[in-house]
Amino acid sequence: MRYGRTIVAIAMLLVLAVGSFMFVLPLTMAEPVDTYHSRWHLVRETADEDAADFATAYDLTGVGTTDGDFASKDTSSVLAGGAFQIRSANASFGHEGYSAGGAWIFAICGSNYADVDDTFSFDIIGWSKTNGMLQKIAEGDGVIGTQAVGIYPDGGDAHGALISLTSVAYTHSTETFTESGEFGDAAVGMMARVTGTGFTNEIVDITTATANTVICDITTSATDCTDATIQINPAFWADTINLDATTKWPSVAVYNSGNNQVCIVLIDTTGLEWIQWIFYDAGAGSGEAGNITVYGRRY
Q1: Pairing between strand 225-232 and 163-171?
Q2: Total structural domains in the chain?
Q3: What is the pLDDT of residues 84-101, one digit of tens each?
Q4: Is the preceding peptide bond at 233 cis, omega within 30 degrees of 0?
Q5: In Å, how far from its chain's centre is CA 294?
Q6: pTM for this one?
Q7: Which residues constitute the domain of residue 10?
Q8: Pick from 184, 208, 233: which residue ends a domain?
Q9: In terms of Cα–Cα distance, which of 107, 109, 103, 93 is closest to 39?
Q10: Is residue 164 in a domain?
Q11: Tens digit of pLDDT for each residue in 218-261?
């Protein structure tokens, strides 16, 4: 009987242990919620090109160059144009609590300076932990599309970052907005978001610009008004991205390119702690986009 009671006790303990394991298992094996609810993070602050070309930013040629060393990585903050740190210690991640590695998606937005479809070029580079060398991930070019940003994912007005005015006088016959001394930063080729009495809200080309007036290619106006709002130069999402090389990194892909919607770049960041987008051909020449911003999130 003594042995029988012992066997029964052991059996009961095994049942309890198995039951506890089955109870805990769903909790420990559940998919990480951050994959589904990760917010967009600012990966590259709004700015024009970083350099005339990639080699000007990071020279990887020649025996004497050290630009490919970890110590040569741009140590500036993202707000100052530096690399983005993707490990979980990054305070901006807050409660999301995910670690480095896994897939990230990235979206690019910018402003037009030559009406529509302005372009840009880029290189994507990364580093692993301390003393990891610079590694080229991808390179390519893109086109700004027609889906307006509105509000940046991390907050802030993306319609009128350059100029935002209310109660502006609008003359219907000449499609002219007048506000003394307020349009000095506007230029032909920029876009304007206009709202007000007598015309439907729209984003239009600026065809003439002076310090006091701008003329836009309005398509829906019907009358003069004095309550117009004009916001210059709206940001739009890049809708087309082309990769010049797809064999530099194990997994890089582009989705939804060429549809006048948000085009994304999907990168397997496994092994990387830092990532940086280097832009050129952006903001310094005819037909080039400017005010380029990059956002990224865990995928």
Answers
A1: antiparallel
A2: 3
A3: 998 655 455 554 545 555
A4: yes
A5: 2
A6: 0.82
A7: 1-30
A8: 233
A9: 93
A10: no
A11: 888 889 999 999 999 999 999 999 998 778 999 999 999 999 99
The span from the CA of 269 to the CA of 283, in Å, is 29
How many C-beta neighbours within 10 Å does residue 128 have? Answer: 15
- Helix or strand holding residue 57 (H, E): helix 54-57
Whether residue 162 lies inside any domain: the answer is no
pLDDT of residue 28: 41
Whether 193 and 96 map to the same domain: the answer is no
Predicted confidence (pLDDT) at residue 5 exceeds the cutoff of 60: no
Spatial separation of the C-alpha atoms in residues 223 and 30, rounded to whole Å: 60
One-letter amino acid identity for 259? N
Say if residues 137 and 125 touch (Cβ distance below 8 Å): yes
Which pLDDT score is estimated for 80?
A: 86
Q: Hey, which residues does 241 pair with through a beta bridge? A: 142
SS3 252: strand
The three-class DSSP label of residue 231 is strand
